[in-house]
UniProtKB/TrEMBL annotation:
Protein name: PadR family transcriptional regulator
Pfam families in UniProt: PadR
Coiled coil: none
Superkingdom of source: Bacteria
Domain Transcription regulator PadR N-terminal: 7-75
Annotated InterPro entries: Tscrpt_reg_PadR_N (IPR005149), WH-like_DNA-bd_sf (IPR036388), WH_DNA-bd_sf (IPR036390)
Gene3D superfamilies per record: Winged helix-like DNA-binding domain superfamily/Winged helix DNA-binding domain
The organism of origin for this protein: Streptomyces jumonjinensis
PANTHER family: NEGATIVE TRANSCRIPTION REGULATOR PADR (PTHR43252:SF6), TRANSCRIPTIONAL REGULATOR YQJI (PTHR43252)
Length: 189
């Protein structure tokens, strides 16, 4: 997610202080990972430097000055271009999970146990997201659906990989102990 573009788009509704932007971001997008104030202010500083926002007012208070930011025409154009660009699909061709499966096989550990543990963790998270989805508003339902669909795809991959473990081990030259013992018995070696 582009924090800068998100903050810019939130400013289209009207000028806001940094803490208002943080609150709006957290309410709409930060349920699981709220923004840090420092991230908001460093982003606003960069957007200001790039001419995408301007300071609409400064208020003095008991603490530091409070700047109110407004989006510029250049900022509106930038958000429009960003929204019009499709996101690059993430193919996950070299996932950590795949790496762990191969390394388990290469080091003589149980890749099947690793896949079983991962399957249990995916199912646990899916239960949590399903509960959240049923309690949440439409925005929560949509974000939970997105995550659930990805987890379902991962589960399909876990099942397929489990079914192909022996073949993968053979291609890597590291048959699991039970398969190695069976082959030694068959060949007499």
């Amino acid at each position: 997610m582009s924090i800068g573009h998100t903050l810019l788009a939130l400013l289209e509704a009207g000028p806001r202080h940094g803490y208002d932007l943080k609150r709006a971001f957290d309410e709409k997008f930060g349920h699981d990972r709220p923004l840090h104030y420092g991230q908001v202010y460093s982003t606003m500083s960069r957007l200001l430097k790039n001419g995408l926002v301007e300071v609409d007012g400064i208020e003095a208070g008991g603490g530091p000055e409070r700047k109110r930011y407004a989006i510029t025409e250049a900022g509106i154009t930038d958000v429009s271009h960003w929204l019009a660009q499709p996101e690059r699909p993430e193919p996950y061709l070299q996932s950590t999970l795949y790496t762990k499966v191969v390394l388990a096989l290469l080091t003589g550990r149980s890749a099947a146990e690793l896949l079983d543990l991962q399957r249990a963790e995916h199912l646990r998270l899916m239960r949590i997201l399903t509960q959240r989805k049923h309690r949440g508003d439409l925005a929560d339902q949509l974000i939970c659906d997105h995550a659930l669909f990805h987890l379902e795809a991962d589960l399909r991959w876990l099942e397929l990989t489990s079914a192909r473990l022996e073949r993968l081990a053979a291609e890597l030259g590291t048959l699991p102990d039970s398969s190695r013992a069976a082959r030694e018995k068959e060949t007499g070696i």
